Amino acid sequence: MIKKLLRPYLFALAVVAVYAVLAFSNRAVFDKAVDTAVAGTWEMLAVLPPIFVLLGLLDVWVPRQTMIRFMGPGSGVRGASIAFVLGSAAAGPLYGAFPVAAVLMSKGASFFNVLILIGAWSTTKIPMKLFELQALGVPFALTRLALNIPAVVIMAWLIRAVVPRDEVERIYEKARIGGTAH
Amino acid sequence: MSAIVFYALAAVALLLSAAKDRQKTLMALRKSRAAFTRILPQFIAIILIVGIMIALLRPEVLTRLLGRESGWYGVLLASVVGSVTLIPGFIAFPTAALLLQGGAGLTQIAAFVSSLMMVGVVTFPVEVSYFGTRAALVRNAAAYLFALLVALIMGMVLPL
């Protein structure tokens, strides 16, 4: 029972062991690592719990047909735009996008649109852009934005072209099973 | 700032949902929890690894390695460092600004920032568990090349 509960945490526990070693061998590095890990924890707690709550609500309230109509395989430019806006409006690290993608796929969003969402989440997130504008200036941030928007679309095209249909089906199957308990 | 927006949004949505249908709301929360517990072990591992990585990265060393004269070597190094690290935005951008002020090259910093955001070596196993090896591999490889391309264009277009 305990073994089963701990199993997913094996890797994390291994890293904790590295921290323990550091605590004795290099106090300065240990202290800085702990500070950063605490900051990272706050960053995660700042945005991910509400995103997961919204995700659960989306899962029960938005009917499959609605998702297919707005973001499904024939949703065209409008569907891609919705994916782009959703991804850009998100906050938090890229790994937070994967569970969101899983729910969208289990609801019938097209693979291309999900890839657009992942791309936008990784590069054009608005909260990140604001940080970038402040730290690196307007020309830097806006040039990167202008170059990244086509990059997001090209990368989505590319991945869709390279991943075979049966593998996409497996990815969707996994999203249906893993995304929800039902 | 975004934390307040997201928590407020979630709270309002939750209240509306509960007012409309208690049962469905509980189901939604169960689903939220299931999705969160699925990915939580990986979150924790990532946060801990990032802590060690940042503790080992020294800004002075980085500034020297990514200097304006470091050329291709510096750009490649910047993109590799950006790819393997995962730094929260509120640390990454101020750090990048400090590096620029310290004498790092613009192309190098652009390569660092772009690969940092788009390429995820540490998060690769998580990505594979959702998208499979092929899609994750293609996305990260393409993102890496784009990060380099974006950096080169920025180096040509922007002054400094």
How would you characterize the overall build of this protein?
The complex is a heterodimer of chains A (182) and B (160). Helices cover 84% and strands 0% of the residues of chain A. Chain A has helices spanning 2-6, 10-25, 27-61, 64-71, 76-89, 97-106, 111-123, 126-136, 138-162, 165-179. Chain B has 160 residues and is mainly α. Chain B folds into two domains: 1-56; 59-160, no CATH class. In chain B, 84% of the residues lie in helices and 0% in strands. Chain B is elongated and about 65 Å long. Chain B starts with a helix and ends with a helix. Chains A and B meet through helix 2, helix 3, helix 6, helix 7 and helix 8 of A and helix 1, helix 2, helix 5, helix 6 and helix 7 of B.
Outline:
The complex is a heterodimer of chains A (182) and B (160). Chain A is mostly helical.
Tally of domains of chain A: 2
Secondary structure class of chain A reads mainly alpha
- Distance between the ends of chain A: 23 Å
Summarize the helix and strand pattern of chain A as letters. Answer: HHHHHHHHHH
Please name the two chains that share the biggest interface, counting residues whose Cβ lies under 8 Å from a Cβ on the partner chain: A-B, 81 and 79 residues
Largest sheet of chain A: none
